[in-house]
Amino acid sequence: TPAVEIHNLFKTYDSGAEALKGIDLVIQPGDFFALLGPNGAGKSTTIGVLSSLVNKSRGVVRVFGRDLDTDRAWVKSQIGIVPQEFNFNQFEPVEEVVINQGGFYGMTRKAARSRSDHLLKELGLWEKRKSMSRQLSGGMKRRLMIARALVHEPRLLILDEPTAGVDIELRRGMWQFLTEINKAGTTIILTTHYLEEAEQLCRNIAIINEGRIIENTNMRDLLDNL
Ligand code: ADP
Ligand code: ADP
């Protein structure tokens, strides 16, 4: 079963913006997949639909074989999402941001704390776990978003422009962390408008432009044909 199957996906916002005009995508379990395209291409909308943040206009979306329309709660339980904006409660201590997220997925506080401890150590945030999250640097806030997205051990992690505005040294650390969890079995989809980021990390890539997939291939073939 593919991790993600998208067939003929359309999204028109209330504003009239036709963000997606018939997208088809298949992403296999274990893949590290890039959705590359310029600003306004439809990347955020695509992952918004996958993660139930955006309602599609029409089309079929399946995650690990289950239909988003009929099994939405289950699909949500399989996905961790790292949006672009820092949308956690800035007035909560770092570890509470992660632990409370576990509560949304029905985890006990004990289980969520144990998972949070592990993730905060892995992501270099252990010393900051009691700090107010608004006091973190931008790069640390980004890593807190990643810890929060992983608390319920999702099989699919989706990141929207994860390193936008992040300096190069921090970017390398994040890349390394993502590569490790992918090796450990988590399917990853990231959006980016840097080919270099996709090239460093991803095995397969789709290029999206003006709401349509214009290329869908593996990274090696793409680079060979540039
Ligand atoms: P990307 O992530 O590739 O930059 P988006 O999916 O954010 O692209 O945007 C695709 C198109 O949809 C753009 O024309 C954008 O202006 C429009 N759009 C995105 N979000 C909204 C929204 N909430 N309301 C109206 N239009 C939107
Ligand atoms: P900035 O202030 O530029 O936003 P941070 O203060 O968040 O950066 O980052 C501090 C340090 O943490 C950086 O030197 C970076 O290399 C390191 N770092 C980045 N990502 C990770 C990671 N996943 N695990 C451990 N350390 C990391």
Task: Give the arrangement of secondary structure elements.
Blueprint: E1 4-12, E2 18-27, E3 32-36, H1 43-50, E4 58-63, E5 66-67, H2 72-78, E6 79-82, H3 94-104, H4 109-122, H5 138-150, E7 156-160, H6 168-183, E8 187-192, H7 195-201, E9 204-209, E10 212-218, H8 219-224
The structure holds adenosine-5'-diphosphate (2 copies).
Protein name: ABC transporter
GO molecular function, one term: ATP binding
Domain ABC transporter: 4-226
List keywords for this structure.
27% strand; single chain; binds adenosine-5'-diphosphate; 8 helices; alpha/beta; 4-stranded antiparallel sheet; 6-stranded mixed sheet; 36% helix; 226 residues
What is the molecular shape?
globular
Estimate what percentage of residues fall within beta strands: 25-35%
- H/I helix tally: 8
Structural class: alpha/beta
Protein name: ABC transporter
Organism: Halothiobacillus diazotrophicus
Keywords: ATP-binding, Nucleotide-binding, Transport
GO molecular function, one term: ATP binding
Care to describe what's here?
By secondary structure, the chain is α/β, with parallel strands linked by helices. The protein has eight helices and ten strands. The strands form two sheets. A six-stranded mixed beta sheet has the order 6-7-8-3-9-10, with helices on both faces. Strands 2-1-4-5 form a four-stranded antiparallel beta sheet, covered by helices on one side. α3 (about 95-105) crosses α4 (about 110-120) and α3 (about 95-105) packs parallel to α5 (about 140-150). The protein is globular and about 45 Å long. The chain starts with a strand and ends with a helix. The model has no long low-confidence stretch (mean pLDDT about 95). Bound molecules: adenosine-5'-diphosphate (2 copies). One adenosine-5'-diphosphate binds next to α5 and α6.
